[in-house]
Design a protein that fits this description.
This protein is an alpha+beta fold and about 425 residues long. Helix content is about 40%, strand content about 15%. The strands form 5 sheets. Strands 1, 2, 3, 4, 7, 14 and 15 form a 7-stranded mixed sheet that branches. Strands 11-8-12 form a 3-stranded antiparallel sheet. The chain has a two-stranded antiparallel ribbon with strand order 5-6.
């Protein structure tokens, strides 16, 4: 059941909106509002260009580009849904869809999407947007976490350079970072301002799962041995080996780049799309390369939450909205969107494009990892945003800083976490 906003707030929102999202003009032309969260210049240009191309060839269905923001997108969309002013076509991420899908805010796309699109995107990607029996979004862009490394530093150290075919194990990775450290320099800088997704998604490589769904459909948190491999490695690098910088634990990914360029850190674990910032910001002649993240019992498996395109349940023209999504995600267009965002497309045909398989800027390493990407552990867990913000984030931050031990972390994630999730599963 949807949580309702106070009546006065709803009235004000409706007055401000003037009308609901999409509609039909007096001349019979349909107008659809597409809210994009693209933010990088190349990505915004690609999205706007594709909207323009659609409008040039579909005079009866005009798409209006609306610039959104990843900042507080969940709360912004919730307010828009409740106020009757949600965009018709919604750009979001798959780990943000569960509450909206179960709450009745998003349209089931199962019978609206063409067979071409359904078959081109692998089933493992569709699992990220499938809730119950319905499909509530189209996963179209994804990115693995990779190690961005100072290539000169690694060559001079003599350490073995990992490849997707022969990656480092988590144990070898720890030894390598220790070998690379010393004299005020660190083998690794972990930017863990938002530690939950990084920890959970990388833990799949060690066989971790964390969230367990019972026969009754209810989810519980169990922080087992496999789930502990990644957080324990990070904490030991920081607190025991002194091979990871303690000062970057509260930083975002981009915050670590000046120190990386300045020779303070040999490697930084980042999302694949950060390569664009590195290309733009790295000093002239700076030699860097992309390495796969470490592998464990689960191999190179990583959890991902792809970017998605959904249709609002209140959209009066769902068929036309789905047709625009199909146009936006034709293989050549998906390649354009991937290049604009420096990410990987989910579509099989787009992923095979030569432009995404070049060795330049590590594209080939990324595409080699694409087949190992799986739905993030929390993908279909109701209440995950609250669990992440109120329980997991502060607990992991305290653990990585050395304020609490592994036992206390496990207690917090399981006992406090299960109390939160239980409220969403009654």
């Amino acid at each position: 059941m949807r949580a309702r906003l106070p009546a006065l707030v709803l009235v004000l929102l409706l007055l401000l909106a003037g009308c609901s999202s999409g509609g039909t003009r007096d001349d019979g032309r349909i107008t659809l509002r597409f809210q994009s969260l693209a933010w990088q210049e190349e990505s915004v240009e690609a999205n706007k260009a594709l909207v323009k191309e659609w409008n040039a060839t579909h005079p009866d269905v005009r798409v209006e580009y609306v610039q959104g923001s990843w900042d507080s997108v969940h709360d912004q969309l919730l307010t828009a849904f409740e106020g009757g002013e949600a965009p018709d076509i919604i750009h979001d991420a798959s780990d943000d869809l569960a509450d909206f899908a179960y709450g009745g805010y998003l349209a089931d796309l199962s019978d609206l999407l063409p067979a071409r699109l359904k078959s081109d995107i692998p089933q493992r990607s569709w699992e990220t947007t499938t809730f119950g029996e319905g499909i509530y979004g189209v996963p179209f862009l994804q990115e693995p976490r990779v190690l961005i490394a100072n290539a000169k530093w690694l060559r001079q150290s003599g350490v073995r350079i990992p490849t997707p075919e022969k990656p480092w194990s988590w144990a070898e990775f720890r030894r390598v970072t220790e070998r690379l450290s010393g004299r005020g320099k660190y083998g690794i800088a972990w930017p863990l301002k938002e530690p939950v997704s990084a920890t959970l998604n990388l833990s799949l490589s060690a066989g971790g799962q964390l969230f367990h769904r019972g026969a009754d459909g209810k989810v519980t948190v169990r922080f087992g041995t496999a789930d502990q491999v990644v957080p324990r490695t990070i904490q030991e690098q920081v607190g025991t080996d002194r091979s990871a910088s303690p000062t970057t634990l509260g930083s975002g990914g981009g915050d670590t780049l000046p120190g990386f360029f300045g020779g303070r850190y040999a490697m930084v674990p980042l999302g694949f799309s950060y390569r664009q910032q590195i290309v733009q910001q790295a000093p002239k002649g700076f030699d860097w390369q992309v390495l796969p993240a470490p592998a464990g019992a689960g191999g190179l498996t990583q959890g991902v939450s792809p970017q998605t395109l959904s249709v609002a349940e209140d959209c009066p023209h769902k068929k036309e909205a789905a047709a625009f999504i199909d146009f936006l995600l034709r293989p050549p267009n998906m390649v354009r969107l991937a290049l604009g965002d420096w990410m990987l497309p989910t579509g099989t045909r787009a992923l095979g494009d030569p432009a995404l398989r070049t060795s330049e800027h590590g594209w080939a390493t990324g595409t080699a990892l694409a087949g190992h990407l799986r739905p993030a552990p929390a993908q279909t867990v109701r209440g995950y945003p609250e669990w992440k913000d109120k329980v997991a984030t502060p607990a992991l931050q305290e653990y990585y800083s050395g304020a609490i031990g592994l036992g206390a972390l496990r207690e917090r994630l399981e006992e406090d976490g299960n109390l939160v999730l239980a409220r969403y599963q009654r």
